Amino acid sequence: MSIEAKYPGQGKPAHPELFNLKAMPEQPTELKPGQLPADKIRLFFEKGFLVVEDFFTDTELNPCLTAVEEIVDRVATRIHKAGKLQDLHEDKDVFQRLTYIDKQFPGAAILAHKDGILPDAFQNLWANERLLNLMEQILGPKVCANPIWNVRPKAPDHPDGEIPWHQDSGYFDPASYTSLLPVAWIPLLDVTEENGCLQIIEGGHKTGKVSDHLNCFANTWHVMLDESKMEDTLEISLEKDVRTLPINKGSLILFNNLVPHRSVPNKGKQIRWSLDLRFQRPGEAEGLYGELAPVLLRDRDDPSMTPDWSPYVANRHLQQHQMTAGEEATPLDKLDTTLTGPWMKQWRLVHGNRHTEAAGLVPEGPER
Ligand SMILES: O=C(O)CCC(=O)C(=O)O
Ligand SMILES: [Fe+2]
């Protein structure tokens, strides 16, 4: 079997021109609200990321925190009803409550992460007028939501929140290697080096390559870049090119699906809640083997269009589990704290854990 057939993630042709400055759309002569001067947008294509400071108001962001409270409450109630949680910890705020619940029911934070219901508040932020104006500068006149979105509780010192170096296309199917899938990474509080901000490797997209990834990182479901290869393959230096990106609530980081990134450990006291909302052009690969459709959010030629969010009532995590474990897989019960996805079959599985077991996968070693 060819290496490519065995590990479908590997060995695909590189298309740097779809991610670098050559991919920058024509920039507007008059800026709409939220739009940035062309020299800022250039940075997104040159460096692979762009920090946009003080973009959202509290009025725009706080409904998302309320929605997060509702997610946590739903998860707590579910565990409580099953008799596995004594105290609902209703007196704790959104930056603490899940930590207390997770202590009594380990994996509660994973249940929140894979809850999979897209609240109205997240839809509104995703389709925010100024954000879509900005995305037009990156993607052109038609902008879709990409189905791979996350709400992340990165709890203090919690091993599940540790996210190693990866390129997002390491999680997505290989068709995404020719699809620009920018993400807006939006924290719901100030993020610092202490509480788990992002680190991005500047210019790590310039070769257009997806370097080899391995499964799975420690006891998580996360894919990880093979650190013995990434510097050579992606022509980067871990010593010189890593940028640590603390940002305030209201700011966001845009980055593409090829630029390597991770988040640093949360040594703070609060849960570092963040959203990652992705975008794409219509008609291009979404990265999920065509299983979930992009949703059109902006058509410059049709100002009256409104998004049809109905495809996103499906819980992507359940769908991904079926895609990975097979149609006959036992359906996951509502308290199942494993998380699986197609990336587990796209790269060499060197380390097994309860997540890979849930997908019915056996590590091939060697262990790292
Ligand atoms: O939020 C994090 O810690 C990691 C985020 C990430 O990898 C992403 O949004 O693609
Ligand atoms: Fe990522």
UniProtKB/TrEMBL annotation:
Its cofactor is Fe cation. InterPro entries: Phytyl_CoA_dOase-like. Keywords: Dioxygenase, Oxidoreductase. One of its GO terms (molecular function) is dioxygenase activity. Coiled coil: none annotated. This is Phytanoyl-CoA dioxygenase. The gene is LOC101857920.
